[in-house]
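User: Here's a chain of 189 residues. Predict its fold as tokens.
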Amino acid sequence: MKKKSSLTSSAQKELVRLVLQAYSKDPLSFSNLLPEVGGILNNIFAPKVLSTQSFGITERERLDQVRLLDALIAKNNQAQLSADEAKVALEKCAILIDSEFLPLSVDHTSILGLLVTALEYSPKSVDKKTDVAFSQEIPAREVFVIRGVKLSLTWDYRLLAINIIPTYMKERNSLLTFVGIIERENGNE
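Assistant: Prediction complete.
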């Protein structure tokens, strides 16, 4: 029986280049031919955040939301944030995501930290789809704050539940591994 040989660095680079080239020429046909790989590439090149309801806020409202969110994140980084304050911070994240004004400084790690404080455990530790309800109200909107974690909210962005989808969180790790290969091959490491 033959031993499987691993791809050389140059072969990996060529493989990634060919896959990206084929995908960029015709994403739809590529995804039809290789749905799993196409799905991963669609997720990489698609908008970061999905929202069911887009709306606008004024510049002053945006500045107020960002200022308050930054203060809450700073407080969370010092382990001084309560679970209720973390929920308020997540509501502010949802508002800024929906209005497409979430600052780059509010990254995956910051939002994950807020989720850990609000839930009192890490969403990464969840093995099956979990809905953590804070109210019995019917949600009016949903906002993905990070891949695999969706907030169910009222029309005025009060947090009703946190929905955790672990398969999407694991898929994110796979995407990051794939992106890591691309970055290594492009000399970005």
